[in-house]
Design goal:
The protein is an all-alpha fold. The chain is built from 17 helices and four strands. The strands form two sheets. The protein has a two-stranded parallel ribbon with strand order 1-4. It is globular and about 70 Å long.
Length: 471
Amino acid sequence: MYPIDLLSPSHLFTNVISVLNSVQLLSRKEAPGAQPTPADFEVNLQTNTGFLPEKPIPRLPEAYSAWEDALTRAQEVLILGENITEDNIKSRVDGELWRSQMRELPVISINDLKTDKQLLRRAHKVLAFLVHFYVHSIPDQTAGSVLIPRSLATPLLEVSSVLRMAPVLTFADTVLWNWDLVNPELPVTIENMRFGVELFSGTEDERNFWFGNAKVEMLGVEMLHLINEYHSLPNVSDFASVCKINRLLTRLVAIINRVEETLLSMRDLVDPSTFYWQVRPWFNGSASGSSSPTWIFEDGPDASTLDLSGPSAGQSSVMHALDIFLDVDFKLQQRRYPAPSESNKRSDLGFMERMRRYMPGAHQDYLSHLANSSRPLRELAKSTPAVKESYNAAVSAIRKFRDSHIRIACLYVVSMARSTAIPVGCPVFAMMQRMERQQKQTGHSTGTGGNELSLLLKSNRDATTRAALKI
């Protein structure tokens, strides 16, 4: 039971004593002076779209029609190179013709885009999709390198520099900016949004995958409102404020539970086999596995100096905001109970921090702003017994969500990677062979960017558990 719920006289008395003791222990933590608002970081709370823009633009100006037309054509004719059999002459010809047209395109200046964030987002999305289509439509590809033509490499690098994000397909491209309105005359709501405007596989499974992620983002808007309400409180040490904080945390638990329900519902909308074999390979970035080629940007910097892993749910700014709000220590820098296991220590401790570099720069700034809060919630809960139980309930909810995330990852990635029931005549047999080689070489299934998926997710779950406070 939370302190704010069912306030019987005994509970009320306990809370009053707790708060009075806390006031004596705490200096009065008043809200700092003028602070930036979420809108200053391109977080749209007024329109209730959060990290999603108010509305993406459907197409770049005419000067960039070559990019837009190429993306339309790619979705019509290209298939995964690893699915192209020797006798599939048409797919080979269509693919090579498209890629040769990409190589022949001139380098188009982005100067006319630089003053409009919406145009820059659209350009990043289009160019990133084109690069992934280019790389993954090449048949008979073995580990080595692939040259990204300057017609795509140069503008993608320039746009990414302005937006301060990675020059590769990201969560923002595939989820935050990959939608339009069903009816432009109606308000922006999840029911009036069509996700998966651009697709690699053309399957409903891929569209539903993006839709499921987008639903989480839209639910996350409510979390962002709660976080903003907390940081907007005049102070956090009087009885009314403590009651308000408990109400906020109770609401937060309910939202996290709905996020978990949304995650689990994807089992009914996305077929694991279709996702793993037809959708997921398109996401791979440079050197994303033992059999994935290294990208070389023509006239660009060394790929090893760039972030090129590809999209991942780990790039969701709303989930990072929640973890920062609850002070989850993924890097194991703080002494907490229980002590990290040996497998926890072996996981990619810098993964979550690295994923931030794939977010738009403004969203990275927002997360840094939250992390530097003068009134961290966990510290408040440690010093205020009346808040501790509600805080722990929120931690427990996000831990439960991560347990479900592990089960989903096992269903969609780990189990599929271990499957050998793929007949030789199947178009994805070539990919199966490569996965078998990877298993022999590494002994584990990898997630986006080559991280050891199960180890990483369990480590993140355990880090969440350690955020809980002793009662």
